[in-house]
Amino acid sequence: MTRVVFLLVPGVHLLDLAGPAQVFSSAADLVDGYALSYVGDMDTVLSHQGVPLGASRELPSLDVDDLVFVPGWRSPKIVGTGHLSERALAWVRTHHDNGGTVASVCAGADALGRAGLLDGRRCTTHHELQEELARRYPAAHVVRDVLFVEDNRVVTSAGIASGIDLALHLVAVRHGPTVAAAIARTMVIYARRNGDDQQASVLLRHRSHINETVHRVQDVIESRLADRLSLAELAVHAGCSERTVTRLFGRATGMTPLRYQQALRVERAEHLIGQGATVETAARNVGFEDARMLRRLRSR
Prior knowledge:
It is a single chain. 46% of the residues lie in helices and 14% in strands. By secondary structure, the protein is α/β, with parallel strands linked by helices. It has two domains: 174 residues, 3-Layer(aba) Sandwich (Rossmann fold); 91 residues, Arc Repressor Mutant, subunit A (Orthogonal Bundle). It is globular and about 60 Å long. About 3% of the residues have low confidence. This is Transcriptional regulator GlxA family, contains an amidase domain and an AraC-type DNA-binding HTH domain.
């Protein structure tokens, strides 16, 4: 059972919290194994929108697979906002030190900074807070104008709705892109991604269409990422001709099924390399016969 623990800060934005919570709640419906809980420095945390939220003051002991999530709060400026006790910040820091993952939305990045987790790492936050975050944590590398950034189990996202993008990314990493795509479709999300950053998800960028035939083809490709898949085999799964698959897939995604599979492989390989795998190991794990093809595709 993976626990997703949301650390609630006074003035928390409801969508910063509810968006990711909905993603992980939907993941629990699809793959089981998720339990959501809410903690804070007080029993009742008042959101910026005026809704009181119940929280536990007891900070649980966590396992390495558990996730701590800090939603953002109302903050035209970071300084003087988002009060958290040293006890709560130490709890966040200890979870990461023990090998766990921590994540934030919007101003929640400042809580990670106060916990000492931004120094030497790439991070991001809402576009209105980027410059202030960079001044407050000069040892951090603040990446401007992207939706989310992951660096050594510290995952930060921009503002408000980008927490959904971040949560879907974490689900895709743990359970594969097919599960993340199913959740996105359940939530009726139109995927919007920043194409200037490697965190721009191939999966969601090309899943914003409504063609179910193409979705079926994508499901097969994503669930068998490392396999060689012929156009004929994909056509059987789609229930139509090879020519129709090519036509519909190109119209919905702007690429061929093979190009889509290659893009997914490169994205997955990038994640493995970011987690410490060699290029050769990553290439084999995603289905390339050797690292040369991966290097060529990455250089594009």
